[in-house]
Amino acid sequence: MLGQGLVDVFFEDGLNWEADLLEDTRFVMVETTAYFEAYRHVLKGLQEIEEGQFPFEKYIIACENEVSPPKYLRNRRTVQFDLRPLVDENIVIREDEALRRQRRIVNYQFSAESRCAESVEILNLRSWPRPDQLHLDQSQYEALQTALTKEFVVTQGPPGTGKTYVGLKIVKALLHNASIWNSGHQSPMLIVCYTNHALDQFLEGIDSFFKGNIIRVGGRAGEDMAKHSLKVKKQALRKLQDMRQIAGVRFNCTKSMMEVKLEIERSGAQMEASEREILHEDMLRPFMDNCYDQMTCVELPQQQEIPSMMVEWLGLEQMLGETQVAVQQGREDDNLHDKQEDEIALSKRICNASVRLSTVTTKFVNPTIVLTTMPVHESSLLTSSNTTSVECHGQQ
Questions:
Q1: Which of 23, 49, 136, 323 is positioned for an S-S bond with 140, CB 3.0–4.6 A?
Q2: Are 260 and 370 members of one domain?
Q3: 361 near 336, Cβ under 8 Å?
Q4: For residue 81, pLDDT beyond 90
Q5: Which residues share a beta bridge with 358?
């Protein structure tokens, strides 16, 4: 059809323009060297932006030259950045979710040379470390300062001037000081590159010094960046959700098994009790239906107490009463027997405590002491000028 000069025209958004078109209506075709479908959604998004909503409108559209500091640095007297990771290039930034929830920071082993970059007043360019301390030349140093102190920056230069190197420095500084610009942890860092290869190359640089959550959106990811692709992240999340569901099912099954086990033990205890005693009607209620109400609603004579209506229904209340009397009599006999045994034991202790009296007489014969034992019939204490008698109680 194109060879004949015919082109199919399709109107999106459900607009019924065909009824309003005339046969001699002219159209203008706009072609692009790039594949249109790849940019369809971007252009669609631009069409939906209303006036005043375009990001950085005053710089891109109004072309203002005076660029303001980032919003998180405005209306604050002093903001200090920790730029030590730019001095110690071997430092790897870690994202610890557990420490973040506890409002704690990750500890790093910085060198003594990095102390000059520990607390840098970011808007005061005079407080910054020297370019050589940050491993930058003068132009790279100025690009880094501008990127961290302005909200809209364009860094350009010929190949080999270190644009990617400076970009990685900027990302590393922002990630290490995320508590300043992302205190609520609700604003991810968005990195957009023109080609998939450029994106993979930049993400590989970030992956070398940052161990945290990186998500790569887009197709044809490199082998090293495939682990960060959105597809892999979705699969991991889906697997985690499946594991949580399995854990939930396992918990419910374990809970059900424990309930069944307790029910079996309870039923076993009731069966054992039925072999040695009469079961109470409350225990048999689930199996009695209306009979339970009929049994418990029976009026008993005054001053008659029956622990179970099942006993009366079986006609065993008289036997139960005799059994209770016999048990009570047996308890009284046991108490009497125990009392008699206690009295006999007390008498034995009194008899064992009774001993014959003896007197140990110590005669002091100067200078020799002679000890003699003399039996006496009464408890007495004999004293004289030459002898001293000491009474002691003991069993002869």
A1: 136
A2: no
A3: no
A4: yes
A5: 375, 392
